[in-house]
Amino acid sequence: xxxxxxxxxxxxxxxxxxxxxxxxxxxxxxxxxxxxxxxxxxxxxxxxxxxxxxxxxxxxxxxxxxxxxxxxxxxxxxxxxxxxxxxxxxxxxxxxxxxxxxxxxxxxxxxxxxxxxxxxxxxxxxxxxxxxxxxxxxxxxxxxxxxxxxxxxxxxxxxxxxxxxxxxxxxxxxxxxxxxxxxxxxxxxxxxxxxxxxxxxxxxxxxxxxxxxxxxxxxxxxxxxxxxxxxxxxxxxxxxxxxxxxxxxxxxxxxxxxxxxxxxxxxxxxxxxxxxxxxxxxxxxxxxxxxxxxxxxxxxxxxxxxxxxxxxxxxxxxxxxxxxxxxxxxx
Length: 331
Hints:
Elements (H helix, E strand, L loop, with lengths): L3 E2 L6 E2 L2 E4 L13 H4 L6 H17 L4 E3 L7 H11 L8 E6 L1 E3 L11 E3 L3 H15 L3 E9 L9 H12 L3 E6 L4 H9 L2 E2 L2 E2 L3 E5 L8 H9 L3 E5 L17 H13 L4 H10 L6 E4 L4 H8 L8 H7 L6 H9 L5
Parallel strand pairs: 3-4, 3-14, 4-5, 5-8, 8-9, 9-12, 12-13, 13-14
Antiparallel strand pairs: 1-2, 6-7, 10-11
Helix pairs in contact: 6-7, 8-9, 8-11
């Protein structure tokens, strides 16, 4: 893969990156996640497995890696890999997020897997934790799932602290979640501190089921923000693992277009993201080397108007999409 600059930052990224949400903790909402980890949740084994997937990603050209404080031990696993492989900080771009605290106690099932808190004390604490795990590699620090109701975009002390961190050399971003992604992003785009736009990047959900933020992501890209897309496979719903009878008709459309373009369904879904004019990086959420290798074949898919037209029939109302996502089982 060739690399390119992310937005107007000086950061070089590969078109496909690797997110560690499914690698850093025993439980996640991706379909089939337990099988991907072979139900083996020993910490040393999971770190070894994560390193193997990271090795495969690096060998195939992936140069952007994404973690978060709430992804269990994802930051630790990523940091130990970067250091053990002696990867130069200049050769890789790394992002992480603050705002959720992991509370599952290394269990697959928990009353609460993570607790959201966008306060200044949490930012300050988690910044130090992230520095311990990822220094000197951290390039992008993002608010995790910024929403209007959390009040984080009106929290002057938090915004000032983020501006201070930006002055120290780290890019500042925010990730989005829920049916109001566009409204949150529009609010974030106009935030300035001392005459300078605060946010350098945005990480949003965009896929062929939930493309509602597309026009706002284009506007953000036009402003120079780097756009990172997560959940391009809708937590496994856009793969053959989705055996829900209610999805059968949509799965058939995916299968038809994948067959026509000589691709797998996952590569087709990722290619749909890569075809967007505003895209900077789309994240693979692979939990195995085989999944990662299949995902990276999206770069070989020759996307066309017929595929775009056919897959437009898959779009769900945002409220329906996010309600379905919230009902996915941790496994």
